[in-house]
């Protein structure tokens, strides 16, 4: 399933990213399928998360966790 799509994203530092991935899939794939992280730059993700924040009922902390997860995936793929 969607997990396969995102399986390239692993913990880069000592911070486990699994929570971010879980949260992302849980909150962001209810209305539409979860977009592969590398589809957008970090900058774009930030804007998207802010506009989806109300939809997904994210508090500030949730948003940050998901953002950290997404940006780590983007970093790894060198998309900036
Ligand atoms: C309550 C339903 C709902 C939830 C939950 C939701 N979205 Fe969306 N999302 C939408 C709708 C509706 C659109 C298309 C209309 C729009 O852009 O507002 C959309 C569009 C998008 C797009 C395309 C934006 C673009 O610029 O083309 C992305 C990416 C996205 N969502 C990411 C997310 C992420 C990340 C989350 C979790 C934080 C999330 N969505 C949660 C309803 C939702």
Question: What descriptive keywords fit this protein?
Answer:
single chain; 80 residues; mainly alpha; binds heme C; Cytochrome Bc1 Complex, Chain D, domain 2; 60% helix
Count up the helices: 4
CATH top level assignment: Mainly Alpha
Distance between the termini: 26 Å
Tell me the fraction of residues in β-strands, as a range. under 5%
Bound heterogens, unique: heme C
Examine the secondary-structure arrangement and name the CATH architecture: Orthogonal Bundle
Detailed description of the structure:
The protein is an all-alpha fold and 80 residues long. It has one domain: Cytochrome Bc1 Complex, Chain D, domain 2 (Orthogonal Bundle). The protein is built from four helices and no strands. The protein has helices at 2-6, 18-28, 42-56, 60-76. Helix 2 packs across helix 4. The radius of gyration is 11 Å and the shape is globular. The N and C termini lie far apart (26 Å). The model has no long low-confidence stretch (mean pLDDT 82). Bound molecules: heme C. The site of heme C (HEC) has 13 residues, from helix 2 and helix 3. Heme C binds at residues 27-28, 30-32, 35, 48-49, 52, 55-56, 58, 66.
Summarize the structure.
With 80 residues, the protein is mainly α. It is 60% helix and 0% strand.
Secondary structure layout:
Layout: H1 2-6, H2 18-28, H3 42-56, H4 60-76
Helix pairs in contact: 2-4, 3-4
């Amino acid at each position: 399933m969607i997990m396969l799509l995102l399986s390239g994203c692993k913990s880069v530092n000592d911070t486990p990213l699994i929570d971010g991935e879980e949260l992302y899939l849980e909150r962001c794939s209810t209305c539409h399928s979860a977009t592969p992280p590398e589809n957008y730059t970090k900058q774009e993700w930030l804007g998207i998360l802010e506009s989806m924040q109300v939809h997904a009922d994210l508090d500030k902390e949730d948003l940050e966790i998901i953002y950290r997860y997404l940006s780590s995936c983007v970093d790894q793929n060198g998309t900036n």
